[in-house]
Write a sequence for this structure.
């Protein structure tokens, strides 16, 4: 829209875009693009474990059609009594280049018992599990992603993996400042992704300060990462405390047009490096790759075709 509407104002939109979103679904979509292009890596298959509406609903069919056919959605929990998926409505103001996000979710959240059933069924086929804890993850056989909205439930899910599937590597995204319980989840993970907003909301002035402080609290972690917008991203290897910082990738002459999903794209890049290039990519390389992937995302609408733009890394 030309400007953000006042209360009771009638305003005509200049354009409208409809697409499937969600932190973990976005990450899965980009991750799958990378897998499709990089055939010589370790064999990895992706499965999304999230709450979706009824399989007979148009919302479910749209979500299914948005993924590559090889992406496993059979691990998702479908609420057959609900036909509407979780949705976000984003109003973008041209006047001040802002975005206002209105979220709606009428779906009942995933329970610990539902997640445990999925994890136990996969068993040794699951090698990695990523949790997005602002709303709810994905998994890989060797990779899974679980979307978990409630930190206490997510904590129970992680503890279930630790007790019953101790070989599974676990990562969590710590994004939303003010959401209680996120610090406790970071303590349990092998890899932690911190957002700039969470870091600043907790008093950290830089990514480096955040990561070094968090290193004293995350005894299980081997890698901590923090994105810092236009300043790029940083990583801290543990227990060596080797710190790596890389600037944001910028395409010369290109204008930022869509930042929605940039963080999810960055996570996809890092997870791709961790699971598919475990022996031949250093953390430095992983950070450069994820930064460029996210940098190329913000200068285009949506996520389509991002993998093609970073093939020179393979």
């Amino acid at each position: 829209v030309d400007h953000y509407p006042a209360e009771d104002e009638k305003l005509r939109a200049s354009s409208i875009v409809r697409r499937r979103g969600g932190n973990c679904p976005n990450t899965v979509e980009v991750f799958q693009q990378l897998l499709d292009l990089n055939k010589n890596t370790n064999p990895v298959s992706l499965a999304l474990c999230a709450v979706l509406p009824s399989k007979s609903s148009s919302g479910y069919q749209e979500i299914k059609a948005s993924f590559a056919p090889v992406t496993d959605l059979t691990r998702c929990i479908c609420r057959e009594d609900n036909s509407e998926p979780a949705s976000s409505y984003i109003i973008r103001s041209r006047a001040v280049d802002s975005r206002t996000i209105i979220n709606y979710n009428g779906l009942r959240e995933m329970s610990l018992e539902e997640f445990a059933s999925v994890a136990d069924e996969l068993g040794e086929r699951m090698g990695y599990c990523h949790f997005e804890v602002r709303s709810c993850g994905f998994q890989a056989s060797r990779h899974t992603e679980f979307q978990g909205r409630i930190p206490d439930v997510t904590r129970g899910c992680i503890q279930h993996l630790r007790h019953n599937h101790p070989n599974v590597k676990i990562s969590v995204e710590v994004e939303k400042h003010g959401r209680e319980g996120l610090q406790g989840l970071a303590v349990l993970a092998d890899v932690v992704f911190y957002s700039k907003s969470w870091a600043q909301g907790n008093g950290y002035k830089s990514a480096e300060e955040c990561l070094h402080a968090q290193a004293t609290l995350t005894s299980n972690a081997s890698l901590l990462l923090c994105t810092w917008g236009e300043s790029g991203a940083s990583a801290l290897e543990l227990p060596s405390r080797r710190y790596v910082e890389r600037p944001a990738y910028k395409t010369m002459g290109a204008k930022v047009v869509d930042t929605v999903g940039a963080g999810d794209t960055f996570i996809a890049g890092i997870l791709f490096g961790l699971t598919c290039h475990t022996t031949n990519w250093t953390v430095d390389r992983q950070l450069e790759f994820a930064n460029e992937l996210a940098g190329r995302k913000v200068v285009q609408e949506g996520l389509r075709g991002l993998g093609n733009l970073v093939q020179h890394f393979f």
The radius of gyration is 19 Å. The mean pLDDT is 91.
